[in-house]
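#data-curation
PF: Archiving a pair of folding outputs for the training set. Convention for this channel: one message per protein, sequence first, structure tokens after, nothing in between. First:
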Amino acid sequence: MEKLRILEKVLVYDRILRFNIDLLTGIKTEIKADIEETRILGESFLSEKERKFLKDFLLKVEEEFLLRLEEVLDSIYDEYEVFNFDITFLSGIPDEVGREIERLELVNTINTKLELLKDLLSGACCIPEQSKKVEVILTPFRVYCELINHAMEFNKKFENI
């Protein structure tokens, strides 16, 4: 029965790692287009003060968020490779596989990195001046914040399998 529990954990963690890699790859692809679209919308609809806020926010997304996103994606991909190597290497010793899974703390590691990304985007979720126009234009970034929140909750659901 212990072997089945370990196999279940291996299969769940494999899917969690792949799910998070796919999620972050998708965000990375989409956010670049959203930045450009947001710039265009900002130029068309916003006042000078609102455009300044938007410009500062987008600069932060480009300089900080995208850099961190790439780092987190690389890190999770590395975790995936280590996980698969360790599991393959230790597959003949089920007790060691179980200990290795616990040692890696994959869900906590991934969620800590996702939390960092969410914090970098939180400016889109908290508009300081309550400008409805800015809030609407930044909707894609608020969606990414919520998507990251859901990913962290999803990961936590399977942490104690």
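PF: Second:
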Amino acid sequence: MSSKPSFSLGRAVSAAFVSMPAGIGAAFAPLLLLWALTSFGHTALMHFVHGGGFLLAFHPLIFIVFCLLTVVFKVMAQGAIYRVAVFGRDARREGLGPLGLQFGAPELRLLGSAVLIGLFYLVIAAAIFVVFAVIFNLSGLAGEEPNTLKALLTVFCRHQGVDWIFILYIIGAWIFLVFLAVRFCLAPVATIAQGKVVALNALGLSSGNVFKLFAGIFLFVLPLALVVVVVIHHVMPSMPRGAGRLAVHAGMQALAIFVIFPLLAGFFSSAYRQIVDLRAK
């Protein structure tokens, strides 16, 4: 058992629901912008530029702009929600803007934290992939397939004998990468609370609390995943292309952005406060 103090999962989940209205109110503008962008952005561009050319949506420049705007709105929303969660009534003094429209030093620190964590995560994932690719290609299982991906699909479909070694390797790699992502989930709230970039040092915060953090994330994300599965398999196939499908997509985006996002932020904020308080004793 870990000697690290562990936070109360029930208390953190309860705090997430209690803090959700305040979080939505504090970050309403960036949440609304993020929802509009992810729900209607591509459609608007296709209709208003070059008469609705479909290929426009996949232009590299437009893709980059969409990614940048998504990141900016998400960071603004995080900055607003975590300011309220950490500083309460003093959130305005910490730079909280009207309806969450602010982009100051805390937001820049959030970006810096995300970049550092992303680079670290990318290096780990690349190392896992390279090791797998080298061993897989040397094993001879690739056969006459034109590339590693097709050979891997063949292994999954065949799943006989030594195939299981590589199948279990992939499953284990995905579990490890999910575990690593959970280890970093407290980095944004810690960055706001401590007034500095918290990246790799977030691993220490989550030490001894990974399974509770994963359980909380699973609890909030599971309903969204179930809704998405039901909609994709039972609603979308029977709907004609057009406004109906766009409305369903917008509804799912609203659930993710206005419900799940604030709930997770509230959960992480409560977990962080509990961990810090416990370790200060």
